[in-house]
Automatic annotation (TrEMBL):
<feature type="transmembrane region" description="Helical">
    <location>
        <begin position="331"/>
        <end position="350"/>
    </location>
</feature>
<feature type="transmembrane region" description="Helical">
    <location>
        <begin position="357"/>
        <end position="377"/>
    </location>
</feature>
<dbReference type="Pfam" id="PF00873">
    <property type="entry name" value="ACR_tran"/>
</dbReference>
<dbReference type="GO" id="GO:0005886">
    <property type="term" value="C:plasma membrane"/>
</dbReference>
<feature type="transmembrane region" description="Helical">
    <location>
        <begin position="383"/>
        <end position="407"/>
    </location>
</feature>
<feature type="transmembrane region" description="Helical">
    <location>
        <begin position="868"/>
        <end position="888"/>
    </location>
</feature>
<feature type="transmembrane region" description="Helical">
    <location>
        <begin position="428"/>
        <end position="449"/>
    </location>
</feature>
<protein>
    <submittedName>
        <fullName>Cation transporter</fullName>
    </submittedName>
</protein>
<keyword id="KW-1133">Transmembrane helix</keyword>
<dbReference type="InterPro" id="IPR027463">
    <property type="entry name" value="AcrB_DN_DC_subdom"/>
</dbReference>
<dbReference type="InterPro" id="IPR001036">
    <property type="entry name" value="Acrflvin-R"/>
</dbReference>
<keyword id="KW-0812">Transmembrane</keyword>
<feature type="transmembrane region" description="Helical">
    <location>
        <begin position="978"/>
        <end position="1004"/>
    </location>
</feature>
<feature type="transmembrane region" description="Helical">
    <location>
        <begin position="842"/>
        <end position="861"/>
    </location>
</feature>
<feature type="transmembrane region" description="Helical">
    <location>
        <begin position="523"/>
        <end position="542"/>
    </location>
</feature>
<feature type="transmembrane region" description="Helical">
    <location>
        <begin position="894"/>
        <end position="913"/>
    </location>
</feature>
<keyword id="KW-0472">Membrane</keyword>
Amino acid sequence: MVRFLLQRPIAVSMIFIALMVFAVIVFRSLPISLLPPIDVPQIVIKVNYQNASPEAIEQNVLSPIRESLMTLNGLEDMESKAGSEVGNVRLTFDYGTQMELAYIEVNEKIDRLTNNLPSDLPRPQVIRINTNDIPIIRVQVIPKPGFDFTEVSLLTENVLKKRLEQLEGVSLVDINGRKERVIAVTPNIPALRALGMTAQEVISAIRFGNEELPGISVEDGQFRYYLRLATRVNNPDDIAQLPVTSKDGVTIPLNRVADVRYEIADVLGHHLYGMDEGMVITVHKQAAAKMNELVPKVYEAVDLFKVDYPQVDFELTQDQSVLLNAGISNLQTSLLFGGMFAFGVLFIFMGNYRMPIIIGVSLPVSLLISFLVFYFFEVSINVISLSGLALGLGMLIDNSIIVLDNITRKRKQGLTLFEACVAGVNEVMSALISSVLTTLAVFVPLVFLSGISGALFKDQAISVAAILGVSLMVAFILLPMLYHLFFKSTESKGVQGEDSKLFLWVLKGYKRLYKRIFAVRKLSFAIFLVLIPLGLALSQLLEVRGLPPIEKFDAVVQINWNEPIGVEENKERVLKLLGVLEGNYAQAEADVGVRQFLLFDGESSLQEASVYFLFETQELKAQKVGMLNQYLDSQYPNAFFEITDAPNAFDQLFNTNIPYYEVRWKDLVSKRPVPESKMDGLLEQFPVSEFSRGPGLQKEASVVFRLDAGKLALYGIPANDLQEKVKQLFGSFTITDIKRFGEITPIKLKTERADFERLLRSNVLIGKDGNEYALSNFISFDYENHYKFVTADKGGIYQSVLLEDSNPEQYTSEIMSWGVENNLGVSFFGQYFKDRETIQELIGILLISVLLLYFILAAQFENFLQPLIVIFTLPLGIAGAFIVLLITGTSLNVMSAIGLVVMLGIMVNDAILKIDTINRLRANYQEQFSVQEALEKALYEAGEIRLKPILMTSVTTILALLPVVFSAGLGADLQRPLVFSVIGGLTIGTFTALYFVPLAYWVLVRKDD
């Protein structure tokens, strides 16, 4: 095949040019995003129910929802949590579930259930979680002093949001911090009493005045007209003129007995930017959109907003494209330095400028054509797929060097230029194919990991397979053609200046050390074997993390005040917290109380706040974080708070709200939470002393009203009247709504803001005898501690404790006995079990990878023992990587693990080619020498033949990665663990390929023979 193609250079050139043209076209259409569009198999249902207790939300809302969703296809787990005024149900599905269909099915079931839910409950929100739901940037909207917040809210909702949604590539624009305008009606209680009226007459007058007659028409001869009441109100002035009639028939304008005006509605949450209250707009991208093109459009749009709306200040924060740009920048750096160092190393080792130029052409060609594979497999350009391309670039250079070196060697043996190109490629073709297959055998099975890890590895596996497959095509077709083209003019002169003085000096040193090692070959082999377990044991000394620590200048403070406070008090506390830092931050923003985001799938309550800080330096950040810790500890000892680095998209994707190890129990008799009085005694008997209370055991103070039904009956007051009065006094009571051109303005009853005991004494009900009776006569109250949350799963309501012990399973039997003694059904749940599952999966997948590796190599070498040589080289390379990670203080994380795969791919390549060369030389020499002499000669010469490509691939890879070690910034922080793994592994791996492979071959072949 190589001969056939080399004889048609014009046709081959045209094919590659055509592929590159198509690749450029395809590249321009490929979506660019931070992460692959992963369907996280979770759906969250959020409930907001004003003035409802956790028990009421659980019983009236969440329990019916759980029952109706129990039969969903692919449902793996279901968790619900009810708090004061809010609740949520989190559904987890099996991976592979069609989440589009699941989302539709959940919405259908919620719609069918609506009639069985409380009538005043807003429809529960159904949120589907996807990596594209992570906002790419946040736009801060801050009204300037003197401008109405509600007007700016309308501007944000009706204008700014729509203008951002019109940008190409935007899928959704979400808003938090909006404030709505309402018409507040405040009854004048003394005036009403003087006229013998009650607030109920005012409410009835407004409802009648705003009534609409739907669908009623009248006839006038041959014409038909729709009937409309002329009394419908539009503004506070209309309401103020409505007539109010007392029971005695006295009619007066409403403004005589009540004050009517526009006001800002009571809110459950606030958004702060610095010390100023405002709104935040989060921008989400479409799956097919290019983030690096979309974010600049958002910046341009905000610049226009600043000109068009001078009454508002705008700022942009938390730009997630920084991480993507860092990944693209790293790839560009790798290409640039990879090409430069490859050129330098090849020139130093060969003294020939043509070779580096050939490799310099092959690198971008291979990379560009790889994007065609991205297009056909629907893979976006993201941080994960880019890291796969970077992973494959090392092997691409490796393959190019091996092919070019082998062609040069064939020319030295006296073949013509054309025949050298053909023979040079054919000789290493099977070995290079095997090396690519073995790399894929190590890497591709990781795609079958369950969970998000497997989904992420899919993009990386496709990108690795793409660039390795393309690199083989380039190495077998384009490189020999370019070699023939570049060296055609020098064919008559022969091969000159191919080995530099430096390489000849290195070759001399290699031979000297080879002879010394083989003089004591048994001892040398034993030392190598001992180093394998010792090197792998170093993993026990390494810190294990999910992602490498990234130098971040921002931090997030998550606070739960753990006190029954309102949102206004929450806001005041956050402002005091911001004041503690005295403006020593570049940016700060806070979401206080319940968040209005449609896509917010976390928990939010009136008592919670999230504060984001961006600092100018790492030192300032450390100093101020310490100050915040001290302030919160001293001023709010009851508060739960956590100060962490601000999460980027990776953190948001990998973070889980699953506890490490949770012991759950259910009351098998009552099917309800165990009462607080009994629970405290049970926890004293709990077998484990060190634990923390789960959400279902956390308490908060509350006021409990109890109605005296006997007195209500005695005075002839209906219980409904009392309940209605309590709602008017303590709730957000909506009289009616004004609906006009899609805009809804609620009319709300505003009552006196005072201590609840005073309100009970000062407000009255009228009995059947016509006398007034204070509410305090019919309502008694107590201060009680109640459970803060009600938690439930598929099996019903549960309570739990959280264990942080490193070996929590040692207490299993004792905890089960404790449950049986107290008639509690005990179960265990947590990340601990999921991690063990993942580890077992990983071990199984790695065993499959090793078996695949063995089968491929056995087929390549046609031998059952020789593949073991390659397999034994792998732990030595891993040990080298561990040594460098330990010396540099680097953790074992996702990026260093990817570095291990990169390094092992190159090591496997070198070992396969070395063994393949030994086998070929041994077969040639067996006709001239004895078996032992042929073996010794083949081992010695194979080392000399493969020394140059092994050294060049290792040195070029190491030197190309070195700039990352000395770079700063987010991209360098991410890539540095990968670089340390590769450098450590290749440093040891090069020595292994040069000396351990021939030693192991000598040991195993003697046994084989």
